[in-house]
């Protein structure tokens, strides 16, 4: 059987995040074999014309593929031509996301997306995990800001604990704090609104929805949560419920594998969005919860949000360049005082500009670094950043995407807020 023609096929290149992603892939120093796919060829051709800082030869090397969720045969042809399919057409539950994933799985191709839709993610697990193991296809939903850096941060923090307390150490808690500046796109709003048809998707419930193993913790709704790695208080956010479910899937998959990379039998994940004070954390938490309640119960609220930020629009490049992400995860061992801290930092809007690099490097790690991935990755299935090859992904984000990623034993550190770049780095930005 011949090798696929392309390393990566980007399906949904004409959308807001798609345009950022195709620019990233076109400029990538490894010059991967790339094709842009969508239902409208004229729009795809316009995308090519809008590429900047790219040679004429590089532009000419990028092929265009007409494909649509309404034409299953076109999806099959697209998937068969790719090592990895990147699906950026959302809301996924409404725009044929499962059909794209199915085409990839049946072709034995990798699949990555940006889905923050719980029902869609759960359906991928239920319908495709077993089949993907048969075809050795790696599926990685939620490979953008939700929930890649959070899941990766937990994995790296746990490994720091194990360096100190031993490979069999049981981690009882991973506490993630994050300070971010992000913009909002119409696609994100559309996905939030689409989730209203199943309230549980937006609710702070069912933390083990994606996990093959049922854990022992309920997802508690703290009004404010202290984050010692920042010495500040954190609030609930729109990302919390999905991040917890993805991290718990990583935990469950590692529990099943019985390997030394596992987190701990009673592991718990908690997080908070950094706020300037405890009072502001409480106010922010309640604001998020009220917005979610309004979206779930009043269709007019969703319509208003979509009108304010139409699909296909988002923050200007100037706004995105002012963005940043600082994600610090503190892991604590059970029965000992061992603590590990991971720090993931990036300049640029992590929700869009840097999401383009996150999903790209996730796809490219499958396409170009397959042999370096984990034993779980070689088995195939619906996996997570932590379980398919977290170390490989961390290295790529640092080398190619401008991330700074570090980690250390902080057992003896009294003021964790000053351990922003602790110890020997996992990886250093170039």
How would you describe what is shown here?
This protein is α/β, with parallel strands linked by helices and 430 residues long. It has two domains: 135 residues, Rossmann fold (3-Layer(aba) Sandwich); 232 residues. Helices cover 43% and strands 19% of the residues. The strands form two sheets. The chain has a seven-stranded parallel sheet, with helices on both faces. A seven-stranded mixed sheet has the order 8-9-10-7-11-12-14. α4 crosses α5. The radius of gyration is 20 Å and the shape is globular. It starts with 5 loop residues before the first strand and ends in a 21-residue tail after the last strand. The relative contact order is 0.15. The C terminus is likely disordered.
Keywords:
alpha/beta; 7-stranded parallel β-sheet; Rossmann fold; 7-stranded mixed β-sheet; 430 residues; disordered C terminus
Q: How would you summarize the topology of this molecule?
A:
Layout: E1 6-11, H1 16-27, E2 34-38, H2 41-49, H3 56-61, E3 63-66, H4 72-80, E4 82-87, H5 97-107, E5 110-113, H6 118-135, E6 138-140, H7 148-165, E7 171-181, H8 186-194, E8 225-227, E9 232-235, H9 240-257, E10 268-275, H10 278-297, H11 299-308, H12 317-321, E11 324-333, E12 339-347, H13 353-368, H14 375-379, E13 381-382, H15 385-401, E14 404-409
Parallel strand pairs: 1-2, 1-4, 2-3, 4-5, 5-6, 6-13, 7-10
Antiparallel strand pairs: 7-11, 8-9, 9-10, 11-12, 12-14
Distance between the termini: 38 Å
The whole-angstrom Rg is 20 Å
Q: Which strand order does the major sheet show?
A: 3-2-1-4-5-6-13
Averaged pLDDT: 90
Strand-and-helix sequence, N→C?
Answer: EHEHHEHEHEHEHEHEEHEHHHEEHHEHE
Question: What's the total helix number?
Answer: 15
Amount of helix: 40-55%
| Total of domains | 2
Q: Indicate the overall shape.
A: globular
